[in-house]
Amino acid sequence: MAVIQYKDFKQLRNKLRGKKLVFCSGTFDITHAGHVLFFEDCKALGDLLVVGIGNDEACKRHKGSGSGRPVLNEYLRLKMVSSLKPVDYCFLHGTSSEKQPHNSLLEEIFTRLKPDIYAFNSDVADVDYRKKLAEKYKVEVRVLERKSPPEFEEISTTKIIEKVQKIRL
């Protein structure tokens, strides 16, 4: 529930010595129940959950500059995610001035934060590279399947955007 910065990682890790720290990351644009389910699954893997949120620049690179994404800016997304019950700490992946690719940021996070577990969904890009990188830093990897209760509709930010676009005012 606290927002942290890269400079806080080492101090935080020392403070949390003996606790199993789970790390996950993503864009989390238009936060929805699917994100909450993912965070609950991640939190169940350890004692504390730290969430990295891709900044606006990273989101535009990942989703495409003409996509109109992110819908919500990085500070709104950070506020939403930090307020969710399963999330203990969250931070922005880099700053808007950094040009590092995602994997370089992961190396920095693994080096400074030293998570015990790195959790991500099975449909992310470069799964094999992420696994090898985590192994290099002796971080356990947990690949989670996207799932939701049968009474939920299929949940995704893209589907929410498409549904909203169909609404006639």
TrEMBL record:
Coiled coil: none annotated. It comes from the Bacteria. The keyword Transferase applies. One of its GO terms (molecular function) is nucleotidyltransferase activity. Residues 24-162 form the Cytidyltransferase-like domain. The keyword Nucleotidyltransferase applies. Keywords: Nucleotidyltransferase, Transferase. This is Cytidyltransferase-like domain-containing protein. It comes from Candidatus Woesebacteria bacterium RIFCSPHIGHO2_01_FULL_44_21.
